[in-house]
């Protein structure tokens, strides 16, 4: 009977064969120039997990200048944007095989390729060491001279395995294969030294826990807990990148739990552990922290394929789901009679999310969209609350439904999913009532969409028509007239040009009368 490590080796060999031609060719090129080259990091780890990749990472004894010269000969394009850190990148375009050519032949040539072919992207980094100056946010780069030394400076043993090319010799000085079989994250060197060299590795522990579903080694976890303050030296941009990768994993919950349990979240996303509100002895409200993690999972389950309305993984939906209740700690009130309220927590939460996401340097549109979803996530409950006794009453007027769609705008499909995911009650009857109510709301939206094109509601008259009818030029009054007609459109649906003009003239006459008075 084979061991888990042997099973992984066999799987890796099968996977590496799909990557071997390009890797072997590149290894031969470097060796002919007198340099070592090894496939390293994620591609090696993923090969053991049965995942092939066309994005290959290599480590080399060559200097960045030597690497750049060799990659210019190998690829169709190359770049030196990471040269300061010893990294040179290159791309070889997919292409059909040449008549009579063997595996591994290449060189620059025509673009294109056979069905299913893909470009090959490589990044080659000189053996190195990353260390932080205690007073600096940027790593200090020192180049090394051995593969084992380079591997010792990587974040975790499962990422500290290599395959020398062109000979395809497996190199594993820190038993990364054993840790991969045991599904454990452990640092190659003492974790205190590793995290001190690069504090971002603490966040990577949480990220890989999410992406791989691995546990963090107890010694590594203890060091992380004792050193969380060190994360403050890392730039917001690097923190944001790791947090986004964590959230975009198939199962981000475990990674988020690592952040909270170690205290790391208190430094990078303090609103998350703040959701662990003390539950009073009468259990008058649910655990908001656990609820938020469940909402995130349920929202992920509603993401769609690439051709659907919310293709997964969707960062905006996931951030909004995780943060939708962060306004609750600041708004919690114990009411007479034993109730608990969180009045306007959606408004407070939107402001808190905006502040946090800006601090993490997220793009403006991401910040705006997440905050808007949080602000709107309770709007539906005004519709659901009108449901009585198992039957649905006309909860909202058509005007209210139009406003719901207009206020959500392009976020409507995400809002649908966030609202449905926000139901975590164990009361099956209540859960079914909420689901039925939202299904009814979606049905009404579709009916109005078919009648009125409500996704792009506009007044029946545009600005040019308003100015022509009223005989005025561009002014504040035109904007006021536009808003008036839009409100009528929301309330009554399409008016038609004739009625809209009559309403406009009546409004204008009233405005003129008020001015004269």
UniProtKB/TrEMBL annotation:
Keyword Nuclease: no
Keywords: ATP-binding, Magnesium, Metal-binding, Nucleotide-binding, Nucleotidyltransferase, RNA repair, RNA-binding, Transferase, tRNA processing
Enzyme class: transferase
Taxonomy, superkingdom: Bacteria
Pfam family name, one: PolyA_pol
Stored InterPro entries: HD/PDEase_dom, HD_domain, HDIG_dom, NT_sf, PolA_pol_head_dom, PolyA_RNA-bd, tRNA_adenylyltransferase, tRNA_CCA-adding_enzyme
Name of the protein in question: CCA tRNA nucleotidyltransferase
Organism: Xylanimonas allomyrinae
């Amino acid at each position: 009977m084979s061991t888990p490590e042997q099973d992984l080796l066999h799987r890796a060999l099968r996977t590496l064969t799909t990557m071997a031609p390009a890797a072997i060719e590149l290894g031969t090129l470097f060796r002919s120039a007198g340099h070592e080259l090894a496939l390293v990091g994620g591609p090696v780890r993923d090969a053991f997990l049965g995942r092939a990749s066309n994005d290959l990472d290599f480590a080399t004894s060559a200097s960045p200048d030597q690497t750049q010269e060799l990659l210019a000969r190998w690829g169709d394009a190359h770049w030196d944007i990471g040269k300061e850190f010893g990294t040179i990148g290159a791309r070889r375009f997919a292409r059909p095989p040449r008549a009579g050519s063997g595996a591994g032949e290449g060189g620059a040539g025509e673009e294109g390729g056979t069905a299913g072919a893909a470009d090959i992207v490589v990044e080659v980094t000189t053996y190195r060491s990353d260390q932080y100056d205690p007073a600096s946010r940027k790593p200090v780069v020192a180049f090394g001279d051995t593969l084992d030394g380079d591997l010792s400076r990587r974040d975790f043993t499962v990422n500290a395995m290599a395959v020398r090319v062109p000979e395809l010799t497996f190199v594993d000085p820190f038993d990364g294969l054993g840790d991969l079989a045991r599904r454990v994250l452990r640092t190659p060197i003492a974790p205190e030294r590793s995290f001190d060299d690069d504090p971002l590795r603490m966040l990577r522990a949480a990220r890989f826990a999410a992406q791989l579903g691995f546990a963090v080694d107890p010694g590594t976890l203890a060091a992380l807990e004792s050193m969380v303050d060190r994360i403050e030296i890392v730039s917001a941009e690097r923190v944001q990148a790791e947090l986004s990768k964590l959230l975009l994993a198939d199962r981000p919950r475990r990674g988020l739990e690592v952040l909270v349990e170690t205290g790391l979240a208190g430094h990078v996303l303090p609103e998350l552990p703040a959701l662990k509100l003390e539950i009073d002895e009468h259990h008058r409200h649910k655990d908001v922290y656990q609820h938020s993690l469940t909402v995130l999972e349920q929202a992920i389950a509603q993401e769609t394929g690439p051709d659907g309305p919310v293709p997964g993984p969707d960062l905006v939906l996931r951030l909004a789901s995780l943060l939708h209740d962060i306004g609750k700690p600041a708004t919690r009130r114990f009411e007479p009679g034993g109730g608990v309220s969180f009045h306007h927590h959606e408004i407070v939460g939107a402001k808190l999310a905006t502040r946090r996401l800006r601090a993490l340097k997220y793009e403006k549109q991401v910040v705006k969209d997440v905050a808007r979803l949080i602000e709107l996530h309770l709007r539906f409950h005004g519709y659901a609350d009108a449901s009585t006794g198992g039957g649905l009453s006309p909860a909202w007027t058509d005007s209210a439904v139009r406003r719901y769609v207009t206020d959500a705008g392009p976020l409507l499909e995400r809002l649908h999913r966030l609202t449905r995911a926000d139901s975590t009650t164990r009361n099956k009857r209540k859960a079914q009532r909420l689901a039925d109510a939202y299904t009814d709301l979606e049905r009404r939206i579709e009916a109005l969409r078919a009648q009125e094109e409500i996704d792009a509601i506009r007044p029946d008259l545009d600005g040019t028509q308003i100015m022509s009818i009223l005989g005025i030029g561009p002014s504040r009054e035109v904007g006021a007239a536009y808003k008036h007609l839009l409100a009528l459109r929301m309330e009554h649906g399409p008016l038609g040009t004739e009625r809209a003009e009559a309403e406009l003239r009546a409004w204008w006459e009233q405005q003129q009368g008020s001015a004269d008075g």
